[in-house]
Design goal:
Keywords: Hydrolase
Strand content: 15-25%
Strand order of the largest sheet: 3-2-1-4-5-6
CATH superfamily: Isochorismatase-like
Largest sheet: 6 strands, parallel
Mean pLDDT: 87
Protein name: Cysteine hydrolase
CATH architecture: 3-Layer(aba) Sandwich
Low-confidence stretches: none
Pfam families: Isochorismatase (PF00857)
CATH topology: Rossmann fold
Number of helices: 6
GO molecular function: hydrolase activity
Oligomer: single chain
Order of helices and strands: EHHEEHEHEHEH
Shape: globular
Organism: Kineosporia corallincola
Number of strands: 6
Structural class: alpha/beta
């Protein structure tokens, strides 16, 4: 079974809202382990065209974005501590789930990926939405609990201990890295 590590929404503008240092360190370890084990690393980031034509004003999460600053190229860059390397796939999305408004499913299926290892910010946003959609698309799922971050630690814990285990294996970066051979 072919596995891919998904690194989701670790852009400067997203991370600026969180104390992300520990999560970035864990993400770095996960990425290094994946590369050592020849596991593809796929980055997913939220991005919009100039003028935000993808955003409807009724969208509670994104509707206010056109009025806010922050859709600059620098703000949309993936954090340099975990930045893509040449050959890594970077998928652009337009909604919360990594699959919504993106070609992620096509990219994964073209590479015969059947198992997704999920990481990212925020646990209650991109990780939850992507996990639910990926489960409905019949992917095998693993979530790296310490390579995900949420603004509310209690919500993060509830998702990791009660919600995610219904559809995914939830492990630490160390546990996963030991199993990948990385």
């Amino acid at each position: 079974m072919t596995t891919a590590l998904l690194v989701m929404d670790v852009q400067e503008q997203v991370l600026a809202r969180y104390p992300a240092e520990a999560c970035l360190a864990k993400l770095g370890t996960a990425i290094s382990s994946a590369r050592s084990a020849a596991v593809p690393v796929v980055y997913v980031k939220i991005a919009f065209r100039p003028g935000f034509p993808e955003i409807h004003p009724r969208n509670k999460m994104f509707g206010g974005m056109p009025a806010r600053a922050g859709n600059t190229p620098a703000a949309n860059e993936i954090h340099p501590d975990v930045a893509p390397e040449p050959g890594d796939v970077v998928v652009l999305k337009h909604r919360v789930s990594a699959f919504a408004g993106s070609d992620l499913d096509m990219v994964l299926r073209a590479q015969n990926i059947e198992h997704l290892v999920l990481t990212g910010v925020a646990t209650s946003g991109v990780v939850l939405s992507t996990l639910r959609q990926a489960a409905d698309l019949d992917y095998r799922l693993t979530v790296l609990a310490d390579a995900c971050l949420d603004g509310d630690p209690q919500v993060h814990d509830v998702l990791m201990t009660k919600v995610f285990p219904m559809q995914a294996e939830v492990v630490t970066v160390g546990e996963w890295a030991a199993g990948t051979g990385g």
